[in-house]
Design goal:
By secondary structure, the protein is of the alpha+beta class. The chain is 27% helix and 31% strand. The chain is built from three helices and 19 strands. Helix 1 runs antiparallel to helix 3.
Length: 246
């Protein structure tokens, strides 16, 4: 069936997925180190295999569908907290974390010390140093811009910061954690750490709210278009088809 029905259906599906993504961005505007997700759309031509049809037919049936999302890697603002265990990354680097299901990465430097005296994330997962998990016994804790941690003047380890090449497929896995393809990262050379600060989410709440309204309205338009197609199909089935001679 060559009609705008395909376009309206695909557009509604794409905008519904976009709506979930924008809503998730807005829900994380106050999550330290959160990276906003951006929708990617690609063109799709709905024609039978090997059949191009007329120019009008191609124009009607050439439409965009959701092609996934990509991460916005722009730097968030640094907010001073005064907490010695709050670390903010300046640059493109990520903290390496030993998660329950393997290695993950985060920009959320809201750390703490566990009962086992290990430096961990707020979720309790060990923050990795260049020589393994970092043990913190005593105070005060200081960290230099290159990630070297000292406790009461004695070096306890060096935070493992990882940088990824442009275009690396980083995927959100929840809890402000991200996964990356194996061996895609390298020790950071351009990134530094600021102690006593946290990086805010890089999602602009005002722009996000405007985008949410726009996506909602577009989805509603596609719902109405599908309703019109449905009504027209029913009309043809009940009024026109019975008139066709067998």
């Amino acid at each position: 069936m060559d009609s705008g029905f395909y376009a309206a259906c695909a557009a509604l599906m794409a905008r519904s997925q976009a709506l979930d993504l924008v809503a998730n961005n807005l829900a994380n505007t106050s999550t330290p180190g959160y990276r906003g997700q951006e929708n990617i759309f690609r063109s799709f031509l709905a024609t039978a295999s090997g059949h191009q049809g007329s120019a009008l037919n191609r124009a009607v049936n050439d439409f965009g569908i959701s092609g996934g999302s990509q991460m916005d890697l722009t730097q968030g603002n640094l907010e001073h907290t005064g907490n010695d265990l709050d670390f903010a990354v300046q640059g493109s680097g990520f903290f390496e974390v030993k998660g329950a299901n393997g290695t993950v990465y985060t920009r959320n430097g809201n750390f703490q010390v566990s009962a086992q005296n290990l430096l961990t994330t707020a979720q309790g997962d060990p923050v990795m140093g260049e020589q393994g998990p970092i043990k913190v016994v005593g105070s005060p804790v200081t960290v230099s811009p290159d990630g070297t941690i000292s406790v009461n003047g004695a070096v306890a380890g060096k935070v493992k910061l990882i940088e990824f090449p442009p275009g690396t497929d980083l995927q959100s896995v929840g809890k402000s954690y991200y996964s990356a393809p194996a061996k895609s990262g390298a020790l950071a050379k351009q990134s530094t750490i600021a102690q006593g600060s946290l990086e805010s989410s890089n999602v602009n709440p005002v722009a996000g709210a405007v985008e949410l309204v726009a996506v909602q309205r577009y989805a509603e338009m596609m719902q109405r278009a599908l309703g019109m197609f449905h009504s027209e199909f029913n009309r043809i089935a009940t009024e026109d088809l019975p008139k066709v001679n067998p």
